[in-house]
Every structure is written in structure tokens, then in C-alpha cells.
TrEMBL record:
<feature type="domain" description="Peptidase M13 C-terminal">
    <location>
        <begin position="391"/>
        <end position="564"/>
    </location>
</feature>
<keyword id="KW-0645">Protease</keyword>
<protein>
    <recommendedName>
        <fullName>Peptidase M13 C-terminal domain-containing protein</fullName>
    </recommendedName>
</protein>
<dbReference type="InterPro" id="IPR000718">
    <property type="entry name" value="Peptidase_M13"/>
</dbReference>
<keyword id="KW-0479">Metal-binding</keyword>
<feature type="domain" description="Peptidase M13 N-terminal">
    <location>
        <begin position="154"/>
        <end position="318"/>
    </location>
</feature>
<dbReference type="InterPro" id="IPR024079">
    <property type="entry name" value="MetalloPept_cat_dom_sf"/>
</dbReference>
<dbReference type="Pfam" id="PF05649">
    <property type="entry name" value="Peptidase_M13_N"/>
</dbReference>
<dbReference type="InterPro" id="IPR008753">
    <property type="entry name" value="Peptidase_M13_N"/>
</dbReference>
<keyword id="KW-0378">Hydrolase</keyword>
<keyword id="KW-0862">Zinc</keyword>
<keyword id="KW-0482">Metalloprotease</keyword>
<dbReference type="GO" id="GO:0046872">
    <property type="term" value="F:metal ion binding"/>
</dbReference>
<dbReference type="GO" id="GO:0004222">
    <property type="term" value="F:metalloendopeptidase activity"/>
</dbReference>
<dbReference type="GO" id="GO:0005886">
    <property type="term" value="C:plasma membrane"/>
</dbReference>
<dbReference type="InterPro" id="IPR042089">
    <property type="entry name" value="Peptidase_M13_dom_2"/>
</dbReference>
<comment type="similarity">
    <text>Belongs to the peptidase M13 family.</text>
</comment>
Length: 580
């Protein structure tokens, strides 16, 4: 409560700008909430990896210690490139692109990844698609002819919902002969590719891309690829403070770092998981009541589809295999068995870690049936900044809460329920609702894209809710929907679906005499977003997120006694019964 009160700016009316009221008094010494928990996480991991008293005999632990030692010693060292990146018997762009991909640089001419098929969430395929705009190279020097041609090609064939094709490698070679796929996959997988299954979109883009690159000169291609590689190295290089090294390792070696944190630092897993599961189940119970009301006037089959998805949804604590304990060293050691990190060279370790990550990503493609082994599954994607906020995986129908997130001020199992429900309840509600927004609705309970989801999305009332949420500009419609519906779900779960503050007189909590329960709920939710308002990526700015989500919640104006002139609720309900 002391922290909550200290951030308030009482010069501002909560009815006119709630974010400013809740967060307007933070000082120049204020530490962003994510920065705070990341700092605590890094401090704990530094202590573990540098401890002289800890006796861990595993090879994995020694490998992580050596990587950390080399990283901290790294000072403006030139990031030497592996010799193979631009070498070989004559230059060939397809082979060079595959080498780049092996070393972590994706999206040069196209995006490639190993992931599950759109219609079978347990079957691995190679996914190929046109690179998104954020992956495209933006050089500081004037645009070359090749760069211009590539940009114009992306602009011409860009499509928000491209048609997916699921082919064998033989079919890919036949349908897009302009690119030598045999060379690409032999180099990438370092073996005969056999009969891979390939999921590809933007087919016409790939055909024209192959023609363009065949007609381009060797000099132009080498120059472009060299520039892309140099840009990648600049972005990947880091200021090697101990804290930065820990965060870097958590991104490129996520399984190992999560395992060590879970084993030596995290002490409250059992109680935390019990409380999280209880909170998650209560949110699902409230959402099930939304579905029973059937606001969208869905058919029995469509409602069954949604109920099955909700019932099958899983909660996962930490990006770790769910059926392994932190004491099970054999799996973790075997997983990183090919690593040979040194305490002397960060550059060597860095490129080796990226090669290892790429190899592990593509490992399942060479196994019988290319089937996902759920027992050993964890998220291992192409990031240089670890996932520290909860996230929802449509293909797994699973909500994961990273271990780093399980710290105050985000969460503490000793907190009063009003604080747990208003912050973690909102976070879980936000992620849960990603399963039911305009993109998530397409995935069924098993994580496969389904026609029933398309039909639900086409319902007039579903489309009306989408249009309502766009009454003001937004950087991401699906994130706004998750905010709107997640906050409403958390509020309804804590106070009750038929709650009306007009009908109740609240007794203050023992620890707080000024703000009553509904007001504390709103304030604690809002203060999750306190900070310096950095430029948002794929989200609205934090002040916009708070103010718009509360504007959508009709109970807010009642809880703070706002007049209609001060605060006119929007009320863009999608699943919940209409507010009055």
C-alpha cells in the first residue's frame, strides 16, 4: 500500500486520466517493474554461476559457468565470424542463406523455421514464408538496386492472410524450381533432407524471388549478404555487464538457464503453482458462464468447440518440460551434449550457441514421423531477449508464466487476494482471451486451425465487437481485445458476475482505510503499467492501455463515482452479457 500510494498523483482526477492518477507521481528514481524483476533474476543467477560453495557436478552447469565467464570478460572484442559463413567452393546465395540461418540470421530473403503444421499440432514441418517488415534490412547507406527490388517484391506480394500450402520436398522443388531447395536444406540440416514436409505461404513471392536472385550479379548478392551479416552482428553484440550476460544467456540457452534457476533459486514453486492454478481455474469458470449466456448466438456445435477449447487449456509455470523434475540431469545434459563452451572466447561461444539453437529447433525433422514429443517440449525461438512476460501458445492451447515473472511486485503467494486477482488475474485473463480473439479463435482445443473457428469469427456480433474496439486507433487489435476482455474477466471473477457497486457498502480492509476493494482493484491493475512509457512494440502505449481498458469497463465509473460527463464507458463486450 505504501508503494501504491507513493505513485498516485492526486492532482489528477481518476475519471479524466486514470493512468496519470495511478502512476503520475513516480520519481526520476522509479524503476520499471520489469526492470526490477529482471534485475533480481540476474542478481540471483550471477550468485549461482559465480558461487565457490555450490557443488554441481553436471557438465551443463560447468558449460554455463564458462559461457558466463567469457561473456563478462568480453570487452568491445571484435565478433569474429565463423569461417564457413561466406566461404566455400564458389559463391551460391542459397547455400549462403542456409549458413546464415544456421547461425541465427533468419529473414534475409525469406523466413524459415521448424514448427508444427497448421492442421496437425503434433507434426513438425518446415515453415517457409515471406519475411515480415520488421525483419527486413534497413541500411543507413543509399538503397541499392537489389535492396529496392526486394522491397518492391515484398510490397507487391504482401498479403495479410496468405494461402497456405502443405507440400513434400519433391512437390516444393516442382512448384518452385527457381530456388535450389536441395542445396538449401542439405546445408541447413547438414544431412540429406529426405522427404521433408513443407508448409509454405506467399508462393508467387518465392517464384519471383528465385528469378530475381538468379538474375542478380554475384557482386550485388555478396554485398547485400555481407551488409545483412554485419547488421546482425551489430545488433547481437552486447555491453558485457554481468546482468546483460545473464539476460543474453537466458535468451539463447533458455532450457539450461531455466533449469538452473528452478533448481537453485526458485523456492516457492509448489505454493505458487497451487495458487496460480486455482486462480486460472476460477477465470475459466467465469468465462464458461460467459459462453453459457451465448451472447454471439452460436450453434450447439460452435459452443461445444469453445467449451472444449476452454476445458483443455493448460497452465504452465516456467518454460521447462512439464514432466521432468529439476533433478533430472540426464535430459538437460544430453540436450546440450554437443556444446563445448570456453571460458576464454565469447565470440566462439556465441556462434556455437546460435548453431546449437538452430540444430535443436530442427532436430525433430529428422526423427521418425517428425512428431512433437510433448514430454520434452519447451519454447526455443530466435530471440536475443528472453520471454519474461506470460504468453499463450495457440498450437499447445497453453498459457506459460515465466519463472522470472513470479516475483514481487508482479506476484507473491503471501499477497492479499485483492492484489493477486487484480494483477495476476488480469495477466492470466489477458492471455486466456488471446485464445478467443480474431486470430486465436481459429485454433481448436488440440491447437489445429479449424473451419468452425472461421465461422465463429464471421458472426455479426463477433465482427461488431471487433469494430467497437477500434473506436480509437490501436497498434494491435488483438492486444486491445485481450486487455478489454481480460480486465473484465478478472473483475467479474473476483467480485462476481452480477456485481454492482451501487448495491453494496464496503467495509475497508484492515490495511487500508481510504480506498475500498473495487478501487484497489483498479489501482493495482493500473500500476502494473507504471513506468517511463517507452515506445511500445505491437501494443499501445501503457497509458493508453490502462485508460482504454478502464473506459471499456462500465463498473469503473461506478467504483470511482464518475459522472457521465467525466467518464462515458464504451462497453465493447465480446463474450460477456451486455452491461447496463
Amino acid at each position: 500500500m505504501h508503494s501504491l500510494r507513493s505513485n498516485l498523483d492526486r492532482r489528477v482526477s481518476p475519471c479524466s486520466n486514470f493512468w496519470s492518477f495511478a502512476c503520475g507521481n513516480w520519481s526520476s528514481n522509479y524503476v520499471d517493474n520489469f526492470q526490477l524483476v529482471e534485475q533480481r533474476y540476474a542478481n540471483a543467477m550471477i550468485a549461482v554461476l559465480t558461487s565457490s560453495r555450490l557443488r554441481d557436478p553436471s557438465r551443463l552447469f560447468k558449460q554455463l559457468q564458462d559461457y558466463f565467464t567469457a561473456c563478462v570478460a568480453h570487452r568491445e572484442e571484435q565478433m569474429q565470424l565463423p569461417r564457413e559463413l561466406l566461404s566455400g567452393d564458389g559463391f551460391e546465395w542459397t547455400r549462403a542463406t542456409a549458413r546464415f540461418r544456421k547461425h541465427g540470421l533468419n529473414g534475409v530473403f525469406f523466413d524459415e523455421m521448424a514448427d508444427v503444421a497448421y492442421n496437425d499440432s503434433f507434426s513438425y514441418v518446415v515453415q517457409l514464408k515471406m519475411p515480415v517488415a520488421d525483419n527486413n534490412y534497413s541500411p543507413l547507406k543509399p538503397e541499392t538496386r537489389l535492396e529496392r527490388d526486394l522491397r518492391e517484391l515484398r510490397e507487391k506480394y504482401g498479403n495479410e492472410d496468405p494461402l497456405l500450402q502443405l507440400w513434400t520436398l519433391s512437390e516444393l522443388k516442382r512448384e518452385i524450381p527457381q530456388i535450389d531447395w536441395q542445396i538449401y536444406f542439405e546445408e541447413l540440416l547438414e544431412r540429406e533432407p529426405g522427404q521433408l514436409r513443407v508448409q509454405i505461404s506467399d508462393v508467387e513471392y518465392f517464384r519471383k524471388l528465385g528469378e530475381l536472385l538468379r538474375e542478380s550479379s554475384k557482386t550485388a548478392l555478396e554485398s547485400y549478404l555481407s551488409d545483412r551479416l554485419a547488421q546482425f552482428v551489430r545488433e547481437a553484440n552486447l555491453d558485457s555487464t554481468p546482468h546483460n550476460c545473464i539476460h543474453h544467456m537466458s535468451a539463447v540457452l533458455p532450457l539450461g538457464m531455466n533449469h538452473i534457476y528452478d533448481r537453485y533459486v526458485y523456492r516457492t514453486r509448489s505454493e505458487d503453482m497451487r495458487q496460480l492454478q486455482q486462480l486460472f481455474d476460477s477465470l475459466r469458470g467465469t468465462f464458461a458462464k460467459y459462453l453459457e449466456h451465448n451472447r454471439l448466438e452460436l450453434s450447439y456445435e460452435q459452443l461445444s468447440y469453445l467449451h472444449a477449447k476452454l476445458a483443455g487449456m493448460q497452465l504452465k509455470l516456467g518454460n521447462l518440460p512439464v514432466n521432468l523434475t529439476s533433478a533430472d540431469y540426464s535430459f538437460y545434459n544430453d540436450h546440450y551434449a554437443s556444446a563445448n563452451f570456453s571460458a576464454d572466447s565469447f565470440a566462439q561461444n556465441f556462434w556455437q550457441a546460435l548453431r546449437l539453437r538452430s540444430r535443436l529447433q530442427h532436430l525433430a525433422l529428422g526423427q521418425p514421423g517428425a512428431t512433437l514429443q510433448l514430454k520434452y517440449y519447451y519454447v526455443n525461438d530466435d530471440l536475443f531477449r528472453a520471454r519474461n512476460a506470460p504468453y499463450f501458445e495457440h498450437e499447445r492451447n497453453t498459457l506459460t508464466v515465466p519463472l522470472v515473472f513470479m516475483q514481487w511486485p508482479f506476484y507473491d503467494h503471501r499477497q492479499h487476494p485483492i492484489f493477486r486477482h487484480s494483477l495476476m488475474g488480469f495477466i492470466l485473463g489477458h492471455e486466456l482471451n488471446h485464445a478467443f480473439e480474431q486470430e486465436g479463435i481459429l485454433f481448436d482445443a488440440a491447437g489445429n486451425e479449424a473451419l468452425l473457428g472461421v465461422r465463429i469469427r464471421q458472426k455479426a456480433k463477433f465482427q461488431a465487437a471487433l469494430n467497437c474496439a477500434q473506436y480509437s486507433p490501436t497498434a494491435s487489435l488483438k492486444e486491445r481485445l485481450a486487455d478489454f476482455n481480460g480486465l473484465q474477466l478478472a473483475y467479474d471473477t473476483f467480485f462476481g458476475l452480477g456485481h454492482d457497486s451501487h448495491r453494496f457498502e464496503y467495509r475497508p480492509y484492515d490495511f487500508e482505510r481510504e480506498f475500498l476493494a473495487p478501487q484497489l482493484f483498479h489501482l493495482n491493475f493500473a500500476q502494473f503499467f507504471c513506468g517511463r512509457l517507452p515506445t511500445a512494440i505491437n501494443h499501445d502505449m501503457d497509458d493508453v492501455r490502462v485508460n482504454e481498458a478502464e473506459l471499456n469497463l462500465h463498473q469503473f465509473s461506478i467504483d470511482f463515482s464518475c459522472t457521465r460527463h467525466q467518464f462515458d464507458s464504451v462497453g465493447c463486450e465480446m463474450w460477456r452479457a451486455a452491461s447496463h
